């Protein structure tokens, strides 16, 4: 049964990489079921994240957000800060796709704080870029400028010319 | 103020490009 769980996970990932997002969802749902049977929260966390990603490419952003929220809860329970940051970043981007910029900002700020704690300058740069765009969408140009300047500073530091 | 219906957010597009080949491996 444990091997079946891992295989469903691998199968889901392969469907995803091939662009078969519906089949990816079916496999990852099976993986999730087995992870729950075993009380394997790491595997559960991976399944929720993979499901969220697949729903993004199916254009079902609300469903994706729900799966990313479960990923975030589990990352916090497992005390995995890097994964927590990644889940916040995914949620920020998903809410941007949903044009809910206030919520997007909440999650991008959460991502920014963790990136700073972890000394992840690339993550911090991405958070600033995203925040600049979300504030622009809201018409808050002062905040947009603040984050654009931070993004420029970090991009120079990391040598990211693009 | 009225918002534009469709926005092209470059940071989101970049995220989706990365996401397309990102999987949580067993």
Question: Could you walk me through the main structural features you see in this protein, from its secondary elements to its overall organization?
Answer:
The complex is a heterodimer of chains A (162) and B (26). Helices cover 86% and strands 0% of the residues of chain A. With 162 residues, chain A is an all-alpha fold. Chain A is elongated, with a radius of gyration of 17 Å. The N and C termini of chain A lie far apart (47 Å). With 26 residues, chain B is mostly helical. The longest helix of chain B has 10 residues, at 10-19. Mean pLDDT of chain B is 82; it is low at 1-6. The A-B interface holds A 6, 9-10, 13, 16-17, 43, 45-47, 49-50, 53, 56-57, 89-90, 93, 96-97, 99, 126, 129-130, 133, 137, 139 and B 1, 3, 7, 9-12, 15-16, 19-26.
Number of helices of chain B: 1
| Sheet/helix structural class of chain B | mainly alpha
Whole-Å distance between the termini of chain A?
Answer: 47 Å
Mean pLDDT of chain B: 82
Distance between the termini of chain B: 47 Å
Please supply descriptive tags for the structure shown above.
heterodimer; A: 162 residues; mainly alpha; 8 helices; B: 26 residues; 38% helix
Topology:
The complex is a heterodimer of chains A (162) and B (26).
Chain A: H1 2-18, H2 21-38, H3 41-57, H4 61-77, H5 81-97, H6 101-117, H7 121-138, H8 141-158
Chain B: H1 10-19
Give the gist of this structure.
The complex is a heterodimer of chains A (162) and B (26). With 162 residues, chain A is mainly α. In chain A, 86% of the residues lie in helices and 0% in strands.
